[in-house]
Amino acid sequence: MRLPESWLQRLPVLEALEENWKSVPLAVTILAAAFYALFLLQAARGAGPFLMMDLVFIPVHEGGHLLFHYFGSEFLMVAGGTLMQLGVPLLLAAWFVFHRQVPGTAFCMFFFFEQLLPISVYMADARAQELPLLTVGDADYVIHDWNYLFGRLGLLDHDIQIAHAVRLIGWTGMIATVAWMLWRGLRSRASR
Predict the structure, then answer these.
(1) Residue 110 pLDDT exceeds 80
(2) pTM for the full model?
(3) Which of 81, 72, 59 is nearest to 144 (CA)?
(4) What would you measure as the largest C-alpha separation in the chain, in angstroms?
(5) Of 100, 113, 128, 97, nearest to 178 (Cα)?
(6) Exposed e or buried b for every residue in 123-147, given b needs 16+ CB within 10 A?
């Protein structure tokens, strides 16, 4: 990937992006493809042990509320859960991109997009507010994130439509990430 010289002069850290991706052993490509295929199958069914990965993101989400609380804005504090839930895998993916590691990049991007599925379920519940809510603070002061956010943005009546679009982006991103990983893995084998 060739970046403009002016970018490289201003941001020398971007030079890493001009290096080739590290090769991926065929066994890693095959095992990763099997893992993602099983995960996608279980996600499509809505049940399975691989979906327990979402439990990892609950404390990340709740930690986002605590972290963004320090910025002094209630809106940002409420949005902070989702921002952290998506930001952590995205930042980890960026680290792997700069180190040119395909499996790590794919894993983090896959779970960035996968997190859009539970987020979309939470969004779709904005008006109904039937889901049980978790909190790390005062149990008497529990806010349904998406009821609050959509309400403040004047989008509450469109919660289902927005959730559907977010879910579609999640599925498309997961499938595209797996396709990219397979392409990169097979390409690194062909270029040997």
Answers:
(1) yes
(2) 0.91
(3) 81
(4) 61
(5) 113
(6) bbbbbeeeeeeeeeeeeeeebbbbb
Q: Looking at the predicted structure, is the pLDDT value of residue 140 above 80?
A: no
Containing 23, the helix (H) or strand (E) segment is none
Nearest-angstrom CA–CA distance, 40 and 103: 17
Please state, as a whole number, how many other Cβ atoms lie within 10 Å of the Cβ of residue 67: 16
**98 class by beta-carbon count within 10 Å (0-12 exposed, 13-18 middle, 19+ buried):** middle
Q: Residue 97: which residues within 8 A CB-CB, separation 6 or more?
A: 17, 105
Overall average pLDDT of the 110-120 stretch: 97
- On whether the CB atoms of residues 100 and 16 are closer than 8 A, the answer is yes
Q: Residue 192 and residue 188: Cα distance in Å, rounded?
A: 7
* Distance between CA atoms of residues 129 and 35, nearest Å: 34
Distance CA 28, CA 107 (A): 12
**C-alpha angle 114-40-150 in degrees, rounded to nearest 5:** 30
Closest CA to 52 of 109, 118, 106: 118
Q: How far apart are CA 94 and CA 59, in angstroms?
A: 21
